[in-house]
Structure formats: C-alpha cells, structure tokens
Write a structure and sequence with these properties.
Distance between the termini: 45 Å
Number of helices: 12
Strand order of the largest sheet: 1-5-6-12-11-10-7-9-8
Shape: globular
Order of helices and strands: HEEHHEEHEEHEHHHHEHHEEEEH
Largest sheet: 9 strands, mixed
Number of domains: 1
CATH class: Alpha Beta
Length: 332
C-alpha cells in the first residue's frame, strides 16, 4: 500500500471537501434569497485590481494585499476588501444611474495571515452595499437586512455591536487636541489599547471634562443608557449613533444591538456608524461594516453609502456551534 504524501498548502488556506461545500453553498443561497428579495442585485468584481486603484480607496487596503505584476510591469493586488472595488465599479459603470443603488456580492478576499494567530488568508465574503442612501435610513436598512439574513440562515443568537467610526475624531477636534497629536491617539484606539490611550491623553493639556471624555468613552459598552451625557460636545458627537439606534429600536431590533463607543473598523474610509456582527456561540466577529460617505467621491462620483461584509465560513462555524449548544441543552 502506497504511503500517503502530504503536500503543504500556504499558511492561512485550507481545503474544503464536498460536505462542507454543500453546506456553504446552501448558506450562500439562503443569504442571497434575503438580499435579492430586498432588491439587491448581485455583482462580481475581479479578484485582482491595480494596486493604485486600491490605494485610491484606502492605503491600508492595498498594503494588506498579495501583490503581483502584469505584462506591462504594473503592480496588481488580490483584493483584501470588496467595498473599494465596488466603489470603483459604481463610479465607472453607474456614472449616471439613479440612486439609491443596491448591490450584493459573494466573493473570496485575500489577506496575508499573521503567523501564530490562526487567521485565514483566503476567506469567502457575502456582502451588501447600499449606495446613495444617507444616514440614518441607509444604515438601518443594511443592519436590519443582515440581521434578517442571518435569521434565515439559521442563526438565533447573533447580535450587532454598534459604534461610530468618526466619533473620536469629532471629539478630538471639539476639545482642541492639536492635529499632530491625533494620529497616535487614533492608533491606540484602533488597537483597543485603552491604557496607552489614557497615557497619551494625560500628556496633553486638556480640561478635566475633555480628559474624562476621551479616556472614558471608548470603554463604554451596553444599552442606550451609555448615550446619555450632559457634556455638550459629546452629546453632539453622539447624535448620529443615537439616531441610528432609535431607528433600529423602532423596527424592533433594539434588543439585538450592543452599543460600543470604542468600536472602530480597520479601514479608514468609514465616516459614520460602524458595526460588527457577533454570536456568543463563538469567540470572533462574523463580519462588519459601516458608513463610508467619502469613498465614492475618490473615484469620481460623490455619494453617501453604507455596506456590510460577512465571513461566510465564520457564519457556518457559528451555525455549527449553535447546533452543538442546542443539542447539549436537549440532552441535559
């Protein structure tokens, strides 16, 4: 009997066999049915884009990609993010189209995995992009629809963490923090380094009110009570988040929202509400997204927009985890 030879595959990738592929295909079909019923048309963009196109959207999106060259020596990159290619597509293919525009996609994305972190460098995404619809209505539509889609997929415990990607930037400006000091504070926040954030804030000459707001707000997580404040700059900065939560609550989704004033997304094009999808059955986010009102303008057609991307394999893992928990509860 011949001895099996195990040939390695790149870190962060894995083979998927027929049973898993059937389950993933069925999951995608359920998600797509909900997206299509809401008027979202499916599009597909190339897996590779010119690097300078990705950089036009966000430097970090290009920097996170695998690179190669075409026959003319131009640098190409595997997409690490689907929102930027869709912004390019909208500006190029829908230059005169009436708004709003509702698009969805089911594609793979690619990011070099960091050693030892168990990250995937190739992952399946299912996403929505609502272009031309301002806040808070557009945000509420996207968030409510992704919650409905996960319901249809078979999840029952999922929640959305809701924050504002521009909240801290607005507070830094309101409290007069010098522009040269802001990047280090925003970097600490993006890494959830609240100790480092406090250290940097304490090194500034700020009022006690400003110091307490800049240090304390990112640690707040909970229900609508965390939005209550008597500090006028903070009250004003929270207006967009408050409006989004109230609209979601009016739609009956308020009990599925966890407000998180320290939530930021990795990419820098977000300009308003940001969110992540969680399931307590697993210890990682299933996806996320937010409002990006300036991204389309970088490609020639300024339009408000909001989107979300789900990691389909993570959603599948959460479904299996919920099934195991349910079976364990039945047997006990």
């Amino acid at each position: 009997m011949a001895e099996a030879v195990i040939h390695p595959i790149p870190p962060g990738t894995r083979d998927m066999l027929p049973d898993e592929m059937r389950e993933l295909a069925a999951l995608n079909e359920r998600l797509h049915a909900v997206f299509a019923a809401a008027g979202y048309g499916e599009v597909r963009t190339p897996a590779i884009e010119y690097e300078d196109v990705l950089r036009r959207g966000d430097d970090r999106a290009a920097g996170a990609s695998f690179r190669l060259f075409d026959g003319s020596g131009r640098v190409l990159a595997l997409r690490s993010d689907t929102t930027i290619p869709i912004a390019r597509l909208v500006a190029s293919r829908y230059a005169d189209a009436p708004m709003p525009l509702r698009l969805c996609y089911f594609d793979n994305a690619y990011r070099p995995a960091q050693p030892g972190r168990g990250q995937a460098s190739e992952f399946m995404q299912a996403g929505l992009e609502l272009v031309g619809s301002p806040a808070p209505g557009g945000d509420v539509e996207v968030i409510a629809l992704v919650l409905d889609a996960l319901d249809a997929a078979g999840l029952g415990r999922h929640r959305v963490g809701l924050g504002d990607g521009s909240l801290y930037r607005r507070l830094l400006a309101s409290f007069g923090v010098p522009e040269g000091e802001r990047p280090v504070l925003l970097d600490a926040l993006s890494r959830r380094d609240l100790v480092g954030l406090a250290t940097h804030v304490d090194g500034l000459s700020l009022s006690r009110t400003a110091r307490d707001a800049l240090v304390g707000l990112p640690a707040l997580r909970g229900g609508p009570e965390i939005l209550a404040t008597d500090v006028e700059p903070v009250h004003a900065a929270l207006a967009g988040l408050r409006a989004c939560y109230e609209a979601l609550d009016a739609r009956g989704a308020g009990d599925r929202v966890i407000l998180d004033l320290g939530l930021v997304r990795e990419l820098g094009y977000y300009t308003g509400v940001v969110f992540e999808i969680y399931d307590p059955a697993v210890g990682f986010a299933l996806g996320g997204g937010g409002r990006y009102d300036e991204l389309l303008g970088r490609f020639g057609r300024p339009l408000p927009a909001c989107g979300v991307a789900l990691d389909v394999q993570r959603v599948h893992t959460a479904m299996l985890a919920e099934e195991r928990l349910a079976a364990r509860g039945t047997s006990e």
